[in-house]
């Protein structure tokens, strides 16, 4: 079984274990009101349920052992808290309740027999809560909350099952003092619970140690060079209407009235200067250079590297285009709204010798239609076409600008993945009929030599791009349907760092957290949601190993700003050392990547499923000695 399957099974077992123990306890309890013969039969039914409960509990133990093999962070709270809470009372039930259910004595007390069964059910239920409240690491607050609920429920049940003050009867002075004690008990419990839970969710201030009062270099002084020879562009954010060939119209936000925004194409070594003007009513904007490792102050993250550019205002971005490759840009203010609506475009840095036959392909969903924009043309949800003479070299620069991964395929010709996330793939080999998995925000450059027959680039959910020769055409090839390429093992292995100055773990999960001040099921990193996720602190020159563990059931395209990482391993299998800036961590997966701290700043890191980012999955990586005068309050809203 894969780790993802074990996680799914574990979540089902969670509920099943609690349900069967509760059923066993409930059935045993009903015997208290029955005449003796009927009670015996009821006890037997309860015994059968108890046996079943023991079996599913054992199965849960096995599943946990399986998960533990994938990593301690997948099971820590289960091993230390959730399982003991169910296993210990389960053993007590097996020893105390089960024999009495099978062979009730002359005066069997249904209540006594049911109590261990019910406590086991509470333990199992506490385990469910444990999975919702605590992720990794296990926090004292979370443990207190879960234990308080468990012991509170058990004590109350004991009280209810014991004939006494709670049974119907006249109020007596004793009863009143008992009430006071119970009231006191419940309030202490509640206070403990609120304290524990809120402490578990919130945390220190996001920019603690790096805010305007701290000593250091402000991030807005880390700027790109300016020069008269700069390549200058102006991007004006304004509303636009997109008309898809299928007939749909979408009210979009655009750069320069175009959706996607203009393809910015520069030459390696150029100075780039982009002026952003905001003419979008009521919506602030920034520009983030996705995958381009620009100086810290040019990163375009509101509240971190600048203030969001309000309607009517402008901002200039400058950087030197040192790295050739395929990149993209997008607004980072309310990005989960702005990017889907169209505030993005491609950034292509051509090498000194620009390749021939170079085409850009931006994939984007408008409404519910996956569209393709070839070479900056208007997006189409119908089949796109291009005409290329046979024998010419072709490079397709493909970006997934959506929040979900795409399955791509190229058929009709052997092809190579020449570059991933802007960087060349060393030792890229020919692929025939294979499909590709492209992470949200990621880029692939596919290269091939145009054959004499047509070639089809397809993306699941879109009719594709048909590339044919000029002149009368042969029929389109069938869409590629071969196995999906494992990008972490494609090409040749490149050297990776073997020694690390620091190790950082990002455990991705879906747990109860404070999201925009409201407790809800959020997307969490190390048990917390933005802005309470602790910021790893690095020093310039350090090599950092990041272990990313996905405990949840969603795929998370992780995107650290300002840096590329090298992929070291996935699920314990050594990887090719490929450089990526957006890597898809599927449910249950464990990735190890290396990051070299060579670009000082305060960097956003987040899941590029922008809805997940908006629900908490965004955090920082900060350099020692760098501060920020900006704040994520005051109208700055990165996700
Ligand atoms: Cu496409 Cu924070 O980025
Ligand atoms: Cu995500």
What integer is the average pLDDT? Answer: 93
The radius of gyration is 30 Å
* Basic shape: elongated
Strand content: 25-35%
Describe the protein's topology.
Blueprint: H1 3-30, H2 36-70, H3 76-102, H4 110-133, H5 140-161, H6 173-201, E1 217-218, E2 231-243, E3 249-255, E4 264-267, E5 271-278, E6 288-290, E7 314-320, E8 325-330, H7 335-341, E9 344-350, E10 358-366, E11 369-374, E12 384-387, E13 393-400, E14 406-411, E15 416-420, E16 423-424, E17 435-438, E18 443-449, E19 455-459, E20 462-468, E21 502-515, E22 518-525, E23 537-538, E24 543-550, E25 556-560, E26 565-570, E27 573-574, E28 579-580, E29 583-585, E30 590-596, E31 602-607, H8 610-614, E32 618-623, E33 626-627
Parallel strand pairs: 1-33, 2-5, 4-9, 10-13, 12-20, 21-24, 23-32
Antiparallel strand pairs: 2-3, 5-7, 6-8, 8-9, 10-11, 13-18, 14-17, 14-19, 15-16, 15-18, 19-20, 21-22, 24-30, 25-29, 25-31, 26-27, 26-28, 26-30, 31-32
Helix pairs in contact: 1-2, 1-4, 2-3, 3-4, 4-5, 5-6
The chain binds CU-O-CU linkage and copper (II) ion.
């Amino acid at each position: 079984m894969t780790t993802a399957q074990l996680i799914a099974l574990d979540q089902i077992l969670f509920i099943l274990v609690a349900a069967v123990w509760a059923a066993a306890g409930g059935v045993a309890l009903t015997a208290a009101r029955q005449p003796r013969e009927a009670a015996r039969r009821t006890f037997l039914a309860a015994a059968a349920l108890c046996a079943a409960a023991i079996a599913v509990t054992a199965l849960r133990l096995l599943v946990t052992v399986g998960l533990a093999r994938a990593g301690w962070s997948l099971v820590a709270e289960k091993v230390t808290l959730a399982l003991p809470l169910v296993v210990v009372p389960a053993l007590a039930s097996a020893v105390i309740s089960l024999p009495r259910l099978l062979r009730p004595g002359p005066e069997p007390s249904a209540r006594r027999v049911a109590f261990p069964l019910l406590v086991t059910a509470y333990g199992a239920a506490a385990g469910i809560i444990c999975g919702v409240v605590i992720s990794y690491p296990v926090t004292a607050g979370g443990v207190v909350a879960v234990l308080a609920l468990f012991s509170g429920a058990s004590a109350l049940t004991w009280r209810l099952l014991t004939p006494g003050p709670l049974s119907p009867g006249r109020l007596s002075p004793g009863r009143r003092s008992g009430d006071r004690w119970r009231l006191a008990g419940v309030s202490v419990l509640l206070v403990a619970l609120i304290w524990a839970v809120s402490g578990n969710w919130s945390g220190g201030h996001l920019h603690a140690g790096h805010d305007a009062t701290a000593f250091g270099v402000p991030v807005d002084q880390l700027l790109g060079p300016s020069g008269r020879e700069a390549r200058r562009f102006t991007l004006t954010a304004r509303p636009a209407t997109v008309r898809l060939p299928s007939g749909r119209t979408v009210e979009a936000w655009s750069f320069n009235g175009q959706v996607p925004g203009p393809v910015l194409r520069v030459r390696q070594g150029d100075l780039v200067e982009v002026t952003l003007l905001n003419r979008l009513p009521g919506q602030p904007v920034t520009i983030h250079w996705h995958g381009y490792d620009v100086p810290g102050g040019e990163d375009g993250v509101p509240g971190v590297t600048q203030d969001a550019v309000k309607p009517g205002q402008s901002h200039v971005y400058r950087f030197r285009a040192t790295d050739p490759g395929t990149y993209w840009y997008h607004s980072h203010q309310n990005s989960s709204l702005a990017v889907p609506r169209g505030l993005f475009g491609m950034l292509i840095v051509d090498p000194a010798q620009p390749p021939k036959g170079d085409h850009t392909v931006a994939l984007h969903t408008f409404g519910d239609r996956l569209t393709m924009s070839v070479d900056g043309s208007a997006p189409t949800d119908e089949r796109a076409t291009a005409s290329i003479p046979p024998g010419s070299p072709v490079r397709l620069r493909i970006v997934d600008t959506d929040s979900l991964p795409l399955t791509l395929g190229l058929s009709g010709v052997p092809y190579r993945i020449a570059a991933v996330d802007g960087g060349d793939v060393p030792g890229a080999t020919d692929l025939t009929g294979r499909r590709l998995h492209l992470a949200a925000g990621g880029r692939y450059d596919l290269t091939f030599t145009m054959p004499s027959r047509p070639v089809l680039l397809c993306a699941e959910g879109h009719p594709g791009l048909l590339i044919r020769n000029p002149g009368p055409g042969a029929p389109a090839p069938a869409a590629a349907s071969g196995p999906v390429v494992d990008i972490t093992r494609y090409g040749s292995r490149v050297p990776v760092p073997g020694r690390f100055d620091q190790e950082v773990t990002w455990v991705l999960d879906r747990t109860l957290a404070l999201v925009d001040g409201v407790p809800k099921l959020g997307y969490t990193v190390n048990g917390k949601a933005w802005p309470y996720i602790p910021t790893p602190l690095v020093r310039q020159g350090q090599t950092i190993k990041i272990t990313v563990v996905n405990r949840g059931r969603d795929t998370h395209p992780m995107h650290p700003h300002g840096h590329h990482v090298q992929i070291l391993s996935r699920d314990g299998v050594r990887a090719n050392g490929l450089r990526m800036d957006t890597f898809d961590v599927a449910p249950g997966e464990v990735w190890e990547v290396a990051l070299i701290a060579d670009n000082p700043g305060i960097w956003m890191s987040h899941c590029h499923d922008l809805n997940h980012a908006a629900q908490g999955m965004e955090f920082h990586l900060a350099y020692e000695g760098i501060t920020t005068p900006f704040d994520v309050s005051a109208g700055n809203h990165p996700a």
